[in-house]
Amino acid sequence: MVDETEQFDRRTYLKLTGTAGVTVTGLAGCLEDAGNGNGDESGNGNGDGGNGSGNGNGSDNDTDESDGSDGSSDMQIVAGTAPGFEPFEMTRDGELVGFDIDLLEAVVDETEYELAEWNEYEFDSLIPALENGNIDVIAAAMTITEDRQQSIAFTEPYYSANQSVLVQSGGDFAPEALEDLEDREVGAQSGTTGETVVQEQLIAEGLISDDQYTSYDNYVYAVQELERGLLDAIVIDEPVGATFADNRDVEVAFTFETGEEYGFGVQQDADDLEAALSEGIAAVRESGEYDEITQTWFDSDGTDSEE
């Protein structure tokens, strides 16, 4: 569906490899200087509001989306995600894995839709890709916000997470509140709630200057610079921060409560898909599969959040 990335059909991949891994497409263009928080990231779409893959009228034209006289392609959906946000989505041994990956696949299995493939993007490129019809659903630990709801729709929430502040392990800097970050070098991933906290709670309040904030395309880069001493702190989603703390030379200094909730993103006019995915989330919770997936990707029940 995405003309700028090389695509693979997930089912074909599974037949060839015999594994349960997911298919990954190439990396789309990165909005390197997005760094403007939720508002910009959710409003930078190209505005044509395409219908996504397979949501056409089943006509006999030569487009891929409307191929097939039985209309089966109308029920195939393409998911987009942004790897590097452990444990929600990441690449291990060339395979796309994570909580969001497993959860969306389980949710789609509860519907009449079929998950045809996964496409990888930088986080800021996901909403434009959805608006342009290059993907049909976003599964990327995306927080439901009013700004984003101006351009896309969300399913019912599937996860809640606050923000953690990471610092170097064993270092002299041990902040206990946002006020303790005054005049410090702080980092976050572009377009995330962590960046919004930095902008609204630190920069807008005069605790740090614009020059003291660094926006990253991926939290992996931010953690690397924190380990090297180029940053004093990172503001990051709580479960993601806990994963980095378990595996890297960083630690959680404190947690800032935001009450944020994640949802799967869909086009604003995709009412049937939105309803089906929301019902699928409820079914996965009720069956106990949600808890199984949570236990797979999180070390403690403290990161699992039932509304």
Write the layout of secondary structure elements.
Layout: H1 10-17, E1 24-27, H2 37-43, E2 76-81, E3 90-92, E4 95-97, H3 99-109, E5 114-120, H4 126-131, E6 137-138, H5 146-149, E7 153-154, E8 159-168, E9 186-189, H6 193-203, E10 213-216, H7 219-227, E11 233-237, H8 238-247, E12 250-262, E13 265-266, H9 271-287, H10 289-297
Parallel strand pairs: 1-5, 2-5, 2-6, 9-10, 9-11
Antiparallel strand pairs: 3-4, 7-13, 8-11, 8-12
Helix pairs in contact: 3-9, 3-10
Architecture overview:
- The chain is built from 10 helices and 13 strands.
- With 307 residues, the protein is α/β, with parallel strands linked by helices.
- The protein has 2 domains: 10-158 and 263-302, D-Maltodextrin-Binding Protein, domain 2 (3-Layer(aba) Sandwich); 162-260, D-Maltodextrin-Binding Protein, domain 2, CATH 3.40.190.
- The strands form 4 sheets. The protein has a 5-stranded mixed beta sheet, sandwiched between helices.
- Strand 3 (90-92) and strand 4 form a beta hairpin.
- Helix 3 packs across helix 9 (271-287) and helix 3 (99-109) runs antiparallel to helix 10 (289-297).
- It is globular, with a radius of gyration of 19 Å.
Offer a quick outline of the entry.
By secondary structure, the chain is of the alpha/beta class.
Q: Within the CATH hierarchy, at the fold level, what is the topology of the largest domain?
A: D-Maltodextrin-Binding Protein, domain 2
**Share of residues in strands:** 15-25%
Per DSSP E runs of 2 or more residues, the count of β-strands stands at 13
Major β-sheet, in short? 5 strands, mixed
**What structural class results from the helix and strand content?**
alpha/beta
Shape, per Cα inertia axes: globular
Strand order of the largest sheet: 10-9-11-8-12
Radius of gyration: 19 Å
Q: What is the percent of helical residues? A: 25-40%
Count of DSSP-assigned helices: 10
CATH class assignment of the largest domain: Alpha Beta
Q: State the assembly state of the protein chains.
A: single chain
